[in-house]
Automatic annotation (TrEMBL):
This is Phospho-N-acetylmuramoyl-pentapeptide-transferase. Its main location: membrane. It is a multi-pass membrane protein. It comes from Schinkia azotoformans LMG 9581. Signal peptide: none annotated. The chain crosses the membrane at residues 20-41, 73-94, 123-142.
Amino acid sequence: MASIVLTILLPFAVIAYTQHYYQVFLFILICMGAILGFLLFNINPAHVFMGDTGSHSLGGLLAGLAFVTKTEILFILMGGVVFIETLTAIIQLISMKLRKKRVFLMTPIHHTFKLMGWLETKIVKMFWLINFSLSFLSILLLF
């Protein structure tokens, strides 16, 4: 989660700087530094766990930044991996309620990849690369 948030904060930093929101830009840089510090202790295998409090705080931070920078729609693209993870869980829940059948082996989707034999490090790298690409695309679309 933290590495994905880091890739989402990159375009927010560019947007804040180009829109002359320098205090927001500085705040984003501070948050990125804190996340990098957290990630130093979580190179596989993880030693410190964020938990719900940390992940919900980061989600609130990202949502707040989307409103402050007026990029609510673009935020969906920037946070593509997070939205896909959530969407797969919603699809699975609706399918189970209506059809009593699973669409995925397990949700969120990263659990399906683990059941298929993928290593956790491979999943994290793949998600990070996808989200970094989506974040870069969002910057290109904005300018």
